[in-house]
Structure to design on (486 residues):
């Protein structure tokens, strides 16, 4: 900060006793700066202790939402910055859910910018089951094909991907999911049911095609 | 409960998110209805398959370090966070849409940020010479604190209508001991107290109520040569009333009207006048 002190406002420099005033100002600037640096470092340490343990969860959600590693990492980094800026508004409680809300919102900002297509509604005709006689569940249980499941989830719209990840991978309660996805608690079950239903239809269609 | 209702509630049942009575009703139905029971088994295995087969994308190596680095950069860039936050919060058109996802921060941005911060610090510290500007800036901070206290579910750190609870609590947190009078007789019951940070120092915030409205009274010690004049400022529908005595600076902020704020001040001064 010292570099900028020579910037004397001219109307002030004409007044008497400015030299001593300047010292006072300089002292005040340095002192306040130090105090603030100190408190911000303390805040950062407390923020990192609370939020860095949820880095895997943050990355997982971003990766599922964005389906792209580079975007996911950028979003997680941006989300942590945003989270730090509003850390004053976090008063304890579930840190993971709080952070995931920010990750989710940051992801959607990027999704909306990049791909408007992702927000089109699920196309019933394309994904309708082609062969009713095949039970996807039986086939799944036999193969437990992770790649197939991953592909199937990635085919779903973002709102379904998000709710499946929050429930099945993070094991969050309906109430916590409602907070993160910003939907009424009563909507969580029906959206989960629709997401699982679509996933089932997609798997049925895929398995039917391969046969 | 019929089959359709049971199928509709199946997800909540399998997620153990239903109330015990509904759960029991479904359990009973599944025992009696083979077709629903089959649906239950099938849906259950689908759910287990989603849980066990979907890959969990753990954070890659280096991301943690990258985040820690950018957080430290953030601190270096925005030491005057209070001001930048307030500016964002109170600017009429928040630039939410303009925010971009950036990978690295180019140096020219750092330089610009440094210049802005510097200008802010200088302005801030030269303020005593430029009184009206200082008041306006402080008013912005005061309104922001008031709004934030109502918005973030953090009105009080110590919630009590008893002055003998609030005062000792504040005394332990601050290096000064503000008076906490009981003004319920004047129609301003005490709600509680809170610590806040204003004008680059920790301050006491006493919260009083007027009907459905809240009054935040910010208190901190007066500087020796500070002006003691009473001031009123109105902005964005909020009224601010400032007064000071030889010990303390007072700023009352509320959405109650200016006259009521004056009544509040008179009541406060009567109660705190040395006997």
């Amino acid at each position: 900060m010292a570099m900028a002190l020579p910037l004397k406002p001219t109307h002030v420099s004409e007044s008497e006793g400015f030299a001593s005033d300047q010292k006072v100002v300089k002292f005040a600037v340095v002192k306040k700066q130090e105090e603030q640096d100190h408190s911000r470092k303390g805040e950062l340490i407390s923020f990192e202790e609370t939020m860095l343990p949820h880095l895997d969860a943050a990355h997982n959600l971003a990766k599922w939402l964005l389906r792209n590693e580079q975007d996911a990492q950028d979003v997680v980094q941006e989300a942590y910055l945003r989270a730090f800026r509003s850390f004053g508004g976090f008063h304890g409680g579930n840190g993971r859910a709080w952070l995931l809300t920010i990750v989710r919102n940051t992801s959607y900002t990027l999704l909306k910018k990049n791909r408007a297509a992702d927000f089109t509604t699920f196309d019933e005709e394309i994904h309708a089951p082609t062969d009713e006689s095949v039970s996807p569940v039986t086939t799944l249980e036999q193969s437990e094909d992770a790649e197939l499941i991953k592909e199937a989830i990635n085919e779903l719209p973002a709102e379904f991907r998000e709710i499946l990840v929050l429930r099945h991978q993070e094991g969050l309660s309906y109430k916590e999911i409602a907070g993160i996805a910003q939907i009424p608690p009563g909507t969580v079950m029906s959206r989960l049911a629709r997401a699982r239903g679509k996933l089932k239809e997609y798997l049925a269609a895929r398995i039917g095609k391969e046969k | 409960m019929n089959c359709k209702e049971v199928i509709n509630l199946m997800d909540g049942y399998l997620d153990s998110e239903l109330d015990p009575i509904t759960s029991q009703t479904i359990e009973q139905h599944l025992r009696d209805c083979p077709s629903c029971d089959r649906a239950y088994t099938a849906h259950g295995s689908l759910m287990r398959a989603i849980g066990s087969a979907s890959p969990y994308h753990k954070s890659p190596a280096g991301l943690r370090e990258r985040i820690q680095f950018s957080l430290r950069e953030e601190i270096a860039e925005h030491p005057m966070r209070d001001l930048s936050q307030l500016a964002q919060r109170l600017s009429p058109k928040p630039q939410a849409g303009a925010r971009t996802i950036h990978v690295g921060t180019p140096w020219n941005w750092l330089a610009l940020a440094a210049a802005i911060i510097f200008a802010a610090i200088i302005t801030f510290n030269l303020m005593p010479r430029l009184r009206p500007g200082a008041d306006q800036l402080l008013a912005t901070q005061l309104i922001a604190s008031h709004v934030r206290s109502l918005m973030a579910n953090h009105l009080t750190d110590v919630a009590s209508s008893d002055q003998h609870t609030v005062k000792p609590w504040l005394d332990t947190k601050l290096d000064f001991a503000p008076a906490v009078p009981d003004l319920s007789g004047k129609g301003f019951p005490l709600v509680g107290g809170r610590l806040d940070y204003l004008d680059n120092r920790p301050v006491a915030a006493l919260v009083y109520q007027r009907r459905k409205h809240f009054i935040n009274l910010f208190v901190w010690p007066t500087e020796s040569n500070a002006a003691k004049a009473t001031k009123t400022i109105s902005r964005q529908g909020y009224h601010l009333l400032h007064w000071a005595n030889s010990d303390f600076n007072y700023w009352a902020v509320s959405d109650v009207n200016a006259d009521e704020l004056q009544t509040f001040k008179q009541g406060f001064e009567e109660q705190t006048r040395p006997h």
